[in-house]
Amino acid sequence: MRPLLITVGSRGDVQPYLALARGLTAAGHQPVVAAPRRFQPLADRHGVDFVPLNDEMLELQDSVKGQGVRAAMTAARSVKPMLRRLLDDQAALAARPADMVVYHPKSLGGPHIAEKFGVPAVAALLLPLYLPTTAFPSPIFPVRVPRALNRASWRITAAVEAPYRGTVRAWRTGALGLESTFRPVADLIGEGGVLHAWSPHLLPAPADWPVAAQPTGFWTMPAGDGWMPPERLARFLEEGEPPVYIGFGSSVTGDPETLTATVLKAIRLAGRRAVLATGWGALRPGAETGGVLVLEDAPHDWLLPRVEVAVHHGGIGTVAAALQAGVPQVVRPFIGDQPFWAGRLHHLGVAPAPLSGRLTPERLAAAVEDAAKLAPAARTLAVRLKEEDGVAAAVARLEGRRDS
Prior knowledge:
The protein is an alpha/beta fold. It has two domains: 232 residues, Rossmann fold (3-Layer(aba) Sandwich), CATH 3.40.50.2000; 162 residues, Glycogen Phosphorylase B (Rossmann fold, 3-Layer(aba) Sandwich), CATH 3.40.50. It is built from 18 helices and eleven strands.
């Protein structure tokens, strides 16, 4: 096969697609990954054929990092022109040979590129978004609903894509020469099929999903990715007991100073050492106190196996890395699907109840203590995850789609 893999977003959105490309190559296929240009070096390190896409939106996110919610909302006003340029880069992919398109719905252009090619389009999802079920509400629905409304809650995905429909429709006709008819992503996924790239141990498929929608297992790269820790991190880890990891990834907050002070006091109350990853600005870097190391980020698959507890926002990439590392977790969810995954981790017994609402040092310290007691359950689940090969399962599904 010559599959074209299209994804956009942060490293958490891109790395699983690179892992899938590696698996496809190992199986004798010729995949190409199209993703934001900043990930070219990562693709090169793993020998993945890569086409760079416009990454202005990531640059915009970088420019407002740590500036709070208001700056992020102001920046959002310039997204549509950037989106059109990103879509135009995707239109250029139609000049390359491909017999299948595997796409992240965030790309918006994936199924339309497949239509231009006249080839199958398969959505690769890192969380459940487009196949309704009565078993649970949409993970991105902002409030709890009665079970009777679970299926109805999945209509929210249509609202998420609504602001961009006009842009996509104009691009379809202008850049691809296709009819102007616009169809919701959910309809396109229902026709083309889906790969769910998470572990069934984390979230099994509900009974009302088709067999083809069963989750494959996580799509992971080789551990560490050849990354070497800075000397001060390596020395910090060697000098004492495994620390608590605290990082909120791409989440932002209107008051990072207060959140940082809360975290530091909680660590003192818990009597533990900590590594703080400032990420996109939910935590504010400052003077390092005794027993605390502050850094911007580090690869989770390298760092998390070396910590006692992982405190984070509940993004699926961090959830997966902590599960595979066998580390108990504390989740302080912010938005989107984060409360959903926090609830799943608590249900599985590898995390205490999510820290929703007002966060205090006392609550966070107590949660760290409670999580540490769950280490045996976290290690047991990690052993089960090691028995899975999500990439191989996904490759087999794509090969079956080709042969059907």
